[in-house]
Design a protein that fits this description.
heterodimer, A: mainly alpha, about 75% helix, elongated, B: 7 helices, about 70% helix
Chain lengths: ~100, ~180
Amino acid sequence: MIPLSWYLIVSAALFCIGLYGVLARRNAVAILMAVELMLNSVNINLIAFWRYRTPDQPIGLAWAIFVLALAAAEAAVGLALIISIYRQRDSVIAEELDTLKY
Amino acid sequence: MMTQQIIFIVISFLTLLMAWVVVTNRNLFHAALALMGSFLGVAGLYVLLEAGFLAAAQLLVYIGAISILIIFAIMMTRRLMQTTETPFNSQWALGGVTALVLFAVIVFVILQVWPWQPGAEPFGAAPEVPEAVLQGSVVQLGRALVDVNQYVLPFEVTSVLLLAALIGAIVVAWPERKE
């Protein structure tokens, strides 16, 4: 059988790859994609703990569903913001969007 | 090594490989396709964890909706996608070190709690539960989501949030009126 720690390690690796993407990418759309990866890794953890610790109660499943809904809302608003910014500034490079800095 | 373990290793390797392509590929469209592959791998992990409903929801919401949304956004900002300059900012080395350190810390903690010896782990394999319990988990989930004592408030708030996000996205992305 598969030990619980395997799932946790895969999920940690996925989270860290996503974190690297968020920190290192220049394109705002790519940053959003990396955030989606991080949310997915959280969901793997929730489902793994549900299956291994409380398979008779739907706690982990319910939380995973909420994370899923929040990810959808986040993607919709984030991409709308990016499209709006692209219209006004002609750029989706995160470094060039620095109006709030000054 | 059992078949299940081999399937797990193959699926997780593909998932992580696709995720790596997502964060490093120069071509954003290829990155979005790799993102779909990564979501598919995560759905495979859900199937291995016997959470079939979540796997279906993952396929519908992530691959069906979010990936398509992202691809639309990429195509609407296409002109900037064909640059030959580096896709990384100046902090990429620092970001990589941060991610690696975080990964090392998490793996250290996991191995502290579940030492790497088969049999020594408090719950090495998934606990055996009757098939009926797993089959009934979707029914339980549906009841819990509308149960006053459990998740009905977060459930309703989520629906309001989704509506707000929908309207907000339309308002934000609406073209400006030229007067």
